[in-house]
Structure formats: C-alpha cells, structure tokens
Specification:
Length: 207
C-alpha cells in the first residue's frame, strides 16, 4: 500500500473555496488578498483563516453548499485519482478549506478520505467561527504522520501534492514532494515541480 495526499484549493480544485464564498457577499477581492498572502507564507495561516472566515458571517449555509457543490475541479483531477488508486495508492485530501467542499468532492472525484475544517453555523447562517482538522501551518504534516503510523506506510511510499505555504509541513514527511502550479515558497521544498495546469502530469513522475 502507498499513500498520496493532495491539497484541495488550487490543487484538486481550480481556485480557493473561501474566495468563492466571499464573492457571494461582495468581498471576494478583500478575502482573496488575504488568501494570497497566506499562501505566499506572508501571514500566519491560523490568523489568516480566522480573519477570513469572520468576514463570511451571515452567509446562508444553503448558499455555501450551492457554491461548494459547483466548484471548478482541476483538469485531470478525477482521472489522476482513479489511476493512482489502480496503482495501489490510498488517496487522501488535506485542506485548510471546508468540509462542505471536500466531502462533496470526495464523492465526485473518488478519493478515499478528506480532512478539512468546519464552518460553524446557527439557524442556517454562518457565525463567522471555524474549527477542524487543518487550522494551523503544521496541521498537514501532523496529520500525515498520524496517517502513516495508522496505515503503516513510510515516507518512501508517500506522495504529497500542494501549491501553498501551508503545504510545507507535509512535504517534510514524503519522499515525493510535488509542487503543482505552486507558490515559490513551496517550490523551494519540492523535488518535483509541475507548472502545467493538468494533474495528469503527476502520473509521469509517480510509480
């Protein structure tokens, strides 16, 4: 058994979920600027996440789900996941984004499990609070080590794919570290760099 871990936003999905959500409130540019700074490593991920989610306060959960169920997936995402599973990989998603998007995508794209964050809501609207599995800069690396231990998979048999600063922590625990259409801060940590927006390029470098 082998393990492949993908980031979701701007990796399996073409864009940032929180930016799409902010667009429904007319705040896309404001939130996108914070997102970009976080992905470049210029802001603490936890602080940036809390700040951005607070701006979503009042958004209807039904609207959140509508947006999350219509996100544009990256070219080749479904085919790449299917082929990796044929090659003996467990395919998992770690996302600093939200379960409304990742759990829905799991059924569409066919990966095995998703670990992400949960937007708190009351009476059908977001409260501006958030919690979950992927709140911090170190969260992906921490979760990866726990999964490797449970599944008895070594870093040698682990592939990680991401694009932003909060993916660095999982890059430390995998032999194959793929920066996909990534920020420079992550490319420095990678041993495979793919700048073509087609996830099938990964299959060329993964056994």
């Amino acid at each position: 058994m082998k393990l492949a871990v993908f980031d979701f936003d701007s990796t399996l999905m073409d864009g940032e979920t929180i930016d799409f959500l902010a667009g429904a409130l007319g705040l896309k540019d404001k939130v996108a600027q914070i997102t970009e700074m976080a992905m470049q490593g210029e802001l603490d991920f936890f602080e940036s996440l809390i700040t951005r989610v607070k701006l979503l306060e009042g958004l209807e959960v039904a609207k959140v789900d509508e947006i999350c169920h219509n996100l544009p997936y990256m070219p080749g995402a479904k085919e790449t996941i299917s082929e990796l599973k044929k090659r003996g990989y467990r395919v998992v998603v770690f996302s600093g984004g939200f379960r409304n998007a990742t759990s829905y995508a799991r059924d569409v794209l066919g990966f095995d499990a998703d670990f992400s964050n949960i937007l708190h809501a009351k009476e059908g609207r977001l409260t501006g609070l958030v919690g979950g599995d992927m709140m911090f800069d170190f969260s992906k690396g921490d979760m990866l080590q726990r999964l490797q231990h449970i599944l008895q998979i070594t870093p040698v048999d682990t592939v990680v794919v991401g694009d932003g600063a909060n993916d660095r922590s999982m890059f430390a625990h995998a032999k194959t570290k793929i920066a996909f259409c990534a920020k420079d801060i992550l490319k420095k940590e990678a041993n495979v760099i793919i700048d073509t927006k087609d996830l099938r390029e990964i299959l060329r470098v993964v056994d």
